[in-house]
Amino acid sequence: MSLDDIKADIKALVAEKSCGPILIRLSWHDAGVYSTGKLTGGCPNAAMRFTDAGEGTFGANAGLPTVALDLLKPITDKYVAAGTISNADLWTLAANVAIESMGGPAIPTRFGRTDAASSAESVESQVGRLPDGDKGTDHLCEIFHPKGFTDKDIVALSGAHTVGGCHADRSGFDGKWTEDHLTFSNSYFTEMLDKEYADETTAQGCPQKAHKATGTIMLISDLALLDAPYRETVELYAKDQEAFFKDFTAAWVKLQENGCEGLRDTL
Ligand code: HEM
């Protein structure tokens, strides 16, 4: 069983189930708990597999241990059970195959992440590690700077919201960011700049911004990117998709490798 076999199976899954966006969110939340400073640890280790405690129970991860892992189960059963790849590496690879399958950049994947053996290897809490959608620029800085990201990186990474959407039964927010939510492009930035958004509260009581004519949404944290110090990068990526893809790739690989040691280029 080779790397090409795993990639082909992920590509087929993404095409069949249109599940690229949730696979990207799975990798982001596995790796995104990493922090330095007051908080430490949190390298990607697939701790969300355990739902007795820890990351598998975090509200911010709603839908990942259930929907995302159910979707991946046939591939997990085939390759992780056989010892070909770890769960944490599979989640990383799945996101990267999804991004490219949806028209985004080809992302290099390195391997060697070790899986958590139980929920005891989870980080203690999502607080200060994963971002809230109803907060603004200060919050984005507080969450992303201790992970080693610049303000430009924050804009590039947020551009992943060009695909997928919010689900009322998961986050309480509701709707898709872009009109072509299964294509990985710079449309998150072009739409954000072109559209007028109005305040809206979802049935779950969550505040968000809606574009009435097309039904797309933005979170408060998304539209915070229209303020300093982020706005000029939004304008750059709206004009230049290649610049977005290049900066996204660099920030995303850093995210997926944060806290990992001894990664290798081959499986
Ligand atoms: C900047 C702060 C961020 C906030 C506040 C945020 C918040 C959210 C929320 C509330 C959802 C909806 C979850 C649901 O209801 O299903 C979501 C989905 C998503 N997020 Fe983010 N996110 C952020 C950054 C990121 C980053 C850095 C990435 C990846 C690089 C990312 C990728 C995604 C994707 C692809 C989805 C769609 C999932 C789906 O369609 O099932 N987000 N995000």
From TrEMBL:
Belongs to the peroxidase family. It comes from the Eukaryota. Residues 11-262 form the Plant heme peroxidase family profile domain. Gene3D superfamilies: 1.10.520.10, Peroxidase, domain 2. Keywords: Heme, Iron, Metal-binding, Oxidoreductase, Peroxidase. One of its GO terms (molecular function) is heme binding. The keyword Heme applies. SUPFAM superfamilies: Heme-dependent peroxidases (SSF48113). Its EC number is 1.11.1.11. This is Ascorbate peroxidase. GO terms for biological process: cellular response to oxidative stress; hydrogen peroxide catabolic process; response to reactive oxygen species.
